Amino acid sequence: LQRSFQDVLIAGSNYTYTYSSQHKNDKDFWYYRFRIETAGNLLFGASALLGGNQEEGVYQLANRPFSQFVKPELEIKHYNRFRGDKTLVVRLLTGVGFAYGNSDLMPFIKQFTIGGSNSIRAFRIRELGPGSSRDIGQQDASNVFNDRSGEIKLEGNVEYRFPISSMFKGAFFADFGNIWMRQDDPDREGEEFAFDRFYNEIAVGVGAGLRIDFSFFIARIDLGLPVRDPRLPEGERWRFEEYWLPNINPFSGYWRQQNMRLQLAIGYPF
Predict the structure, then answer these.
(1) 54 or 93: whose pLDDT is higher?
(2) Taking the C-alpha atoms of 100, 101, 103 and 104 in order, what is their torsion angle to the nearest 10 degrees?
(3) Of 159, 152, 160, the residue nearest 178 (C-alpha)
(4) pLDDT digits (tens, 9 = 90+) for 220-258
(5) DSSP 60-116
(6) CA atoms within a 13 Å half-sphere pointing along the CA-CB vector of 131
(7) Is the Cα torsion angle 186, 190, 194, 196 positive or negative in sign?
(8) How many CB atoms lie within 10 A of CB 20?
(9) Which residues does 40 contact at the CB level (< 8 Å), separation at least 6?
(10) How far separated are the first and last CA of the chain, in Å rounded?
(11) How far apart are CA 219 and CA 206, in angstroms?
(12) Contacts of 16 (CB under 8 A, 6+ apart)
């Protein structure tokens, strides 16, 4: 965690390919976006060729190490429109970051985050992950260090949009996903990605939203309910029995704090 916050130079490039199958009046179409970002390759090559300044085996420029990584991302969306201006949108987003050469870890600003108004809306931004890790001694899953990031991301969303009036529109949604680190950290158990358990570390949230269409922009209010929380002990991650059912009381401030997340934003989430 400390290394991810160290001062580094980031110099590189990115390439984005976007494709949409939508044509005029299409009711069923796909959207694809592939993005890859690289950093540090030219600097590393020049430093190795010219014998650049090294400190502890790491090349430096202007007395600062430079970061070297590659970060591919893929986003897929499917839109299905029905009569009455109703739309079902399904989205899948995944990505991974690889640090190599002059770096052993992705810089914090380039790592993945999850949660918030455009992600899993039942959780605060940067609240989840990596994996099932949680703060040492943490007893309340809602009381966390909200600056969490990871090198692997998997996220999915389903949203049903429908009109209420000419100005107001509604939505029901379900979001799922998490972030992970590629390598194990003995001080933060459960943060690394593992094929035999990653599916058990998926967070799930559901909710409803209101959109106000001002023609030139859309104001959005989403209310999310966390259904599954990977930070809780294994076997207790579905929140229905402990958090929802025993003491359902939306008028209680404590119950709302534990079970409701209000997200305010401009525009559609995806």
Answers:
(1) 93
(2) 50
(3) 152
(4) 999 999 999 999 888 888 887 666 556 676 767 777 777
(5) EETTEEB--EEEEEEEEEEEEEETTTEEEEEEEEEEE-EE-TT-SS--GGGSB---S
(6) 21
(7) positive
(8) 13
(9) 10, 11, 12, 66, 67, 68, 69, 101, 102, 103
(10) 30
(11) 20
(12) 33, 34, 35
CA dihedral 241, 210, 117, 25 (to 10 degrees): 120
- Cβ-in-10-Å burial (0-12, 13-18, 19+) of 16 comes to exposed
Confidence of residue 1 (pLDDT cuts 50, 70, 90): low
Amino acid at 200: N
Annotate 204-237 with b (16+ C-beta within 10 A) or e (fewer): bbbbebebeeeeeeeebebebbbbbbbbbeeeeb
Residue partners of 51: CB distance under 8 A and separation at least 6: none
Predicted confidence at residue 61, as pLDDT, reads: 85
Identify the CA nearest to 117 among candidates 255, 253, 229, 267.
267
- Rounded CA-CA distance 53/47 in Å is 8
Question: Taking the CB of residue 164, how many other CB atoms lie within 10 A of it?
Answer: 11
